């Protein structure tokens, strides 16, 4: 599919054509660079929680995720106890998946450890593709790349989990490592 024109007259990627939270996310966040450790950890954790689910589910629950994960402060989340995991397993405001909750705790600890080597933000952005994709249709969209595979391997070596190549490709799109918008979408080029 090519970009579509929404009811507001703006041309967008097809998944964001209708009004609502997905359109807001598409227009104002997706593909825009984020800054700081907490912002990068949040996106990495939420992409992990999204695995097997729709992004709209995660987006709807994002406010509660931010509350219960202390705005993704790595030190705080890394210090979560087994009791905290049990508390989160009982919270209907988030995705209650034990493996993903425990991965968030592990990923926070791995983020803290990365500070000695430049930090999470530096590591993630080191995998920017030399030639960013420029898809004109949804059929040309990627789901993995050599860079997302390499990022996945590097993160796993450092103790991260729920960081497979497809999830890392989605992370790269989400945090603006490259512009994921289709050519012709009004948001293409606005995130840099």
UniProtKB/TrEMBL annotation:
InterPro entries: Adenine_glyco, DNA-3mA_glycosylase, DNA_glycosylase. This is DNA-3-methyladenine glycosylase I. The keyword Metal-binding applies. Zn(2+) binds at residues 13, 26, 181, 185. Pfam families: Adenine_glyco (PF03352). One of its GO terms (molecular function) is DNA-3-methyladenine glycosylase activity. GO terms for biological process: base-excision repair. Keywords: Metal-binding, Zinc.
């Amino acid at each position: 599919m090519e970009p579509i024109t929404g009811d507001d007259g703006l041309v967008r990627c097809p998944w964001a054509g209708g009004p609502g939270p997905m359109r807001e996310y598409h227009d104002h966040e997706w593909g825009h660079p984020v800054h700081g450790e907490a912002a990068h950890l949040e996106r990495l954790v939420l992409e992990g929680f999204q695995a097997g689910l729709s992004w709209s589910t995660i987006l709807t629950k994002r406010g509660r995720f931010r509350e219960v994960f202390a705005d993704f402060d790595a030190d705080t989340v890394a210090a979560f106890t087994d009791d905290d995991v049990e508390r989160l397993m009982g919270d209907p405001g988030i995705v209650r998946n034990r493996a993903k909750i425990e991965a968030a705790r592990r990923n926070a600890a791995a983020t803290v450890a990365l500070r000695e080597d430049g930090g999470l933000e530096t590591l993630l952005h080191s995998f920017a593709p030399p030639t960013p994709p420029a898809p004109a249709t949804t059929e040309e969209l990627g789901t993995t790349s050599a860079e997302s595979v390499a990022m996945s391997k590097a993160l796993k070596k450092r103790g991260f989990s729920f960081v497979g190549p497809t999830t890392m490709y989605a992370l790269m799109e989400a945090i603006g490592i490259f512009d994921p918008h289709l050519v012709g979408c009004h948001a293409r080029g606005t995130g840099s």
